[in-house]
Design brief:
Blueprint: H1 19-38, H2 56-78, H3 82-109, H4 122-132, H5 134-151, H6 156-165, H7 200-203
Helix pairs in contact: 1-2, 1-5, 2-3, 3-5, 4-5
Length: 210
């Protein structure tokens, strides 16, 4: 029995399984990593309120989880293997959780302080906080968890896909099935040029007696 079929293992899956979630996570990760640097252009910023200003707090609390989320989304987007897709989902979920709790743990871990949003109203400050950290992290965790639930489930559609993409097993020369359809000698007829003996009984028939 040949075990080299493409769809024979349960770890294989269609690439489309995590493509949409992967693309969304890739976009959210890019947003989380870039918003501290481009946000000041449209008045969406934390101190010092200037674009493209690097700080350790921004690196640990925004850039790092954003890059990890984007990496997890990329793995989901291109992967046709369940283990790789699950790894991407876990990366995204952990990075999303860090977006939520990172600012709370930052003082204890000595990672720096990101400060408070620069906004004229409380509503604007809430929007900046939600879009940059808390709401962003919750959405990433939700997508990561949904992806993990989806890729760990082997559905009827997966079985059908495996059967469609399966490579037929090679014939085994050691089995009798290889020669099952070979024509038998008696079905081939007389070989060309070979003299066939006449019916001797027909040549020496006894004359009928009256």
């Amino acid at each position: 029995m040949n075990n080299s079929r493409r769809g024979s293992g349960s770890l294989h899956m269609p690439r489309s399984r995590g493509a949409v979630s992967g693309l969304l996570l890739l976009i959210l990760g890019a947003w989380g990593a870039l918003i501290p640097f481009i946000g000041p252009y449209f008045h969406f910023a934390y101190p010092p309120g200037q674009a493209w200003v690097w700080s350790p707090a921004r690196a640990w609390l925004e850039v790092l989880p954003g890059v990890v989320t984007a990496l997890g989304g990329l793995l989901l987007l291109i992967s046709g293997h369940r283990a790789t897709a699950m790894f991407g989902g876990w990366l995204a979920a952990i990075a999303g959780a860090w977006f939520v709790v990172g600012r709370t743990l930052a003082p204890a871990l000595r990672l720096g302080d990101i400060g408070h949003p620069i906004a004229a109203t409380d509503a604007k400050r809430a929007v900046v906080d939600i879009a940059s950290f808390y709401g962003l992290g919750v959405l990433i965790v939700f997508l990561g968890g949904a992806v993990l639930a989806r890729v760990t489930t082997r559905t009827v559609g997966d079985v059908a896909w495996e059967q469609r993409t399966a490579i037929p097993p090679a014939a085994d020369p050691g089995t009798s099935d290889t020669f099952a359809d070979a024509p038998r000698t008696e079905d081939l007829g007389p070989a060309p040029g070979r003299h066939q003996p006449e019916n001797k009984r027909g040549l020496f028939r006894r004359a009928p007696t009256h």
